[in-house]
Automatic annotation (TrEMBL):
Keyword Oxidoreductase: no
Keywords: Membrane, Transmembrane, Transmembrane helix
Lineage: Bacteria, Bacillati, Bacillota, Clostridia, Monoglobales
One Pfam family, short name: ABC2_membrane_4
Protein's UniProt keywords contain Transmembrane helix: yes
Protein name: ABC transporter permease
Coiled-coil stretches noted in the UniProt entry, renumbered to this chain: none
Amino acid sequence: MSGLLANYRNECAKLMSSKKYIVFIIIEILICAVAVFSKLIVTSISKGTWTMNNISSPISLMTLFVQAIVPFIIMLASCDLFAGEFQDKTIRAVFMRPTARYKVFVGKVLAVITIAAVNMAVVLISSSIFDIIVSGSVVNLGYAVWAYILDMVPLAVLALMTIMINQLVKNSTFAMFLAIIVYIGLNVLGIYFSNLSGLVFTGYMQWHKLWLGAGLPISALFSKILLMLGYGLTFTAVGYYLFRFKEC
């Protein structure tokens, strides 16, 4: 267990030491600021008063971040920790440590999911702070917190899929390209083929809508849980199998 934790901390340190992930966090904060103050201006003009009531910025910004920005960061982190390390041969130093390969794999997976969670937390916290600055409160803060936590489920599945794709190639640029194409393809598939939309995990990127206020029967929710679990287990099993036998 200590080896797994050490590897996990090391992989997280790799990601956070890269300036581009710090830049992403700064950009997210700026997007939240611009979005909140833009809504304030528009609402104030329409109502004739300098106010922004009954608008929850953490919720209104979720679509952009959950379906576009955070998935992109997940793909980038996955490519850095997997295909990128095979490309520049730094993975050899990782394999030389007295750590089982499955611990290396799990540590990298958890690091990718952690970077996604950190970015989601930054969006939630910064948008909430800006809401407090302009209106003195955050509308439906409890709902927003649970929504962000629940939406980590499809993001984790997306991370597992991207990591699996990374095992197919040793070039980080090509792996990034493949991940983006597959993600866009799955989204398009769900949009234009309605009979398949319920079977594609990307159709549930806003996972919280199934749980918070939807009132779906338990049987329907249980089937969705099994669907996401099936995707997650499949991506993990295939990804680890390919990683285990991948040559440096």
